[in-house]
Amino acid sequence: MARKKPRVHIVGTGTIGEPLVYLLTEQRKEIGLGEVSFYKRTPLVEEVGKVKRMVEVGAVFSAGEDKFPQFKELGLHPMLTHQQALERADVIIDCTPEGNKLKEKYYLALSQKYPKKGFIAQGSEEGFGVPYVWTVNDKCLFGRFIQVVSCNTHQLVCPINTLIIKHEGIENLKNGKFFIARRGSDISEDKVNPGVEAEAAKEKYRQYGTHQAYDAARVIQTLYSRPISIPIHSQIIKVPTQYMHTMLFDIEIKSPIHYKEALARLEANPLIVFTNLKSTNRVFDRARNTSKARGRILNQTVFYKPSLDVSEDGTHIRGTCFTPQDGNALLSSVAATLWLLDPATYKEKMKVFDKFLFTEVV
Ligand SMILES: NC(=O)c1ccc[n+]([C@@H]2O[C@H](COP(=O)([O-])OP(=O)(O)OC[C@H]3O[C@@H](n4cnc5c(N)ncnc54)[C@H](OP(=O)(O)O)[C@@H]3O)[C@@H](O)[C@H]2O)c1
């Protein structure tokens, strides 16, 4: 008898969950998946269209059994209870801000009952599992729990990995300074923030500044078997835009390199896309018009090319990058899912998603 195709269940249908439902459902045949289901927690009249569209592309709608009557009143028909979907799935991708809480509530017990099941959480859910960024620390994946780190951590790790770790190694990093301007809210949200907001320093992140560099260091540390020094520091403010984050960096290295070499290293990474557009508004606009992934940019960073600057002595590399926060971590969730299903074939299957990557934002 043919082996049943693996099932994936996505918990949460917000900024991250919804596009992931589309990516996995629409590519499921090409990557050998069976059912892709999702859990919508709250019955909301304004989200009826969203649920319908995900069902239309073939995703299976699950809800809490107690919420079935309210969803039915809205004209929505859950096919599974959330509990059924959790039990059936081979991989569960948590796309809520409460991954660790739900790990305690559901996932740990499920993992004991079904030791082969895999679990993924998003963002800054430290302690959920191996902190992971696609193409950076794949060789360090182990176990059944993976934390796909935040969008800004993807952004921060990407140039360090591309310029240094992949070449001379982290030992060549003397000092990395990262300044992040965060978007105030997502375009899917009604929140507004009229001014620039500062962030208070936290004792926990003292060495690294904020959680973004702290998490980046956790990702990089997985690459080494002994504790290593990772001299990076981030600072952050929130700015009144809904479009994208922006990151400025100044990486100081021990062995100097030439501008041309820095550019070549960045160009060699297909997860980095260059642009000559100097504002997030314009980058966002071009992506909305040309993205093959429902307006999202799945590259880890959009690098403003004219900002690339290498000091005369070759020891400082500086630049400004735009962060497609609602897209740049999605491929890490896809890769983690496919790795949990079969570490031997996941890299080959990830090629299916190359077609969604921007090669330029013009
Ligand atoms: N937004 C970004 O750009 C971004 C980027 C990278 C990573 N992340 C991370 O991704 C995660 C999700 O963020 P998001 O921006 O997608 O959030 P979001 O847009 O606010 O959506 C959250 C979703 O999770 C559901 N949810 C919340 N608490 C839940 C619970 N206890 N049980 C079940 N469902 C629950 C909500 O369901 P209902 O609305 O139906 O109640 C909603 O569908 C966070 O960890 C975040 O840090 C976000």
TrEMBL record:
Output the InterPro entries linked to this UniProt entry. NAD(P)-bd_dom_sf
Name the chain's protein. Aspartate-semialdehyde dehydrogenase
Q: Which organism is it from?
A: Candidatus Giovannonibacteria bacterium GW2011_GWA1_44_25
